[in-house]
Design brief:
The protein is of the alpha+beta class and 243 residues long. Helix content is 21%, strand content 30%. α1 runs antiparallel to α2.
């Protein structure tokens, strides 16, 4: 039962049977009691508000520190340390190993001699091409250096006749290791003759140790300047017939 209900009960209790008058003294006393309780209640609320303001004032007066970051859900991840890398030199490229004997040309560049030899080659789309001819140099200690490689790009590398011919690629510039014109012929050639500017130049030649039908030939640089291409070339057998 609240205060209003008590006041109403007091008013009903003082009513006379004819309901024409009230006990004003009792009503006024209950009214004063109600008003006093409301004042006390109001004072209590005000005190609570003041206390809250005081608490807020104290809180505001404190200088806040740096906000705390939430802890990560998983374990902390540490970035790996960057270590300086030491460059590793690539291994030197191994040159193709000669197939059969290495042919001496008789041409020298200081202590190096011009040599010719075959090496294995592989063209995925041309199974008939398996060898290529190298013009290289050999030191007094026997080390080989490859200068130029020629090989067929189609067909069969053992078909009868002339195959690719190699020329010096320096463009006519003086070189201590100028490359003589060279190539190979398949068949019983005893003499190979080239034509340039209307004159004939006979090549030097040697048979390949792996197949005597394969003839390696080259032209002396003093007779055919390196880089000068032939106008024509023929091979003759032992009887002088053109092959």
């Amino acid at each position: 039962m609240n205060d209003v209900d008590r006041l109403r009960r007091a008013m009903r209790a003082t009513e006379r049977a004819d309901r024409t008058s009230l006990d004003l003294t009792l009503v006024m006393r209950e009214g004063r009691r109600l008003r006093r309780r409301r004042r006390l209640a109001g004072a209590g609320v005000a005190a609570v508000v003041v206390a809250a303001v005081a608490v807020v004032g104290v809180t505001v007066g404190v200088r806040p520190g740096p906000p705390e970051l939430p802890s990560p859900a998983g374990p902390a991840v540490t970035a790996p340390a960057v270590r300086p890398t030491t460059p590793v030199a690539a291994p030197p490229q191994q040159e193709g190993q000669p197939v059969g004997d290495v042919v001496d040309s008789g041409i020298w560049y200081g202590g190096d001699q011009r040599v010719f030899y075959f090496v294995p080659v592989k063209l995925p789309s041309q199974p008939g091409v398996r060898i290529g001819l190298v013009a290289g140099r050999r030191t007094a200690g026997g080390k080989l250096t490859s200068d130029h490689l020629i090989n067929d790009v189609e067909g069969n590398d053992r078909r009868p006749g002339f195959h690719q011919i190699g020329y010096d690629q320096s463009g006519g510039r003086p070189s201590l290791t100028s490359l003589p014109a060279f190539g190979y012929f398949v068949g019983p050639a005893e003499r190979i003759v080239g034509t340039v500017d209307g004159r004939q130049v006979t090549a030097r030649q040697a048979r390949w140790s792996e197949d005597p039908e394969v003839v390696i030939f080259w032209f002396d640089p003093e007779q055919l300047a390196p880089g000068v291409e032939l106008d024509g070339i023929i091979a003759r057998d032992a009887g002088g017939r053109t092959l």
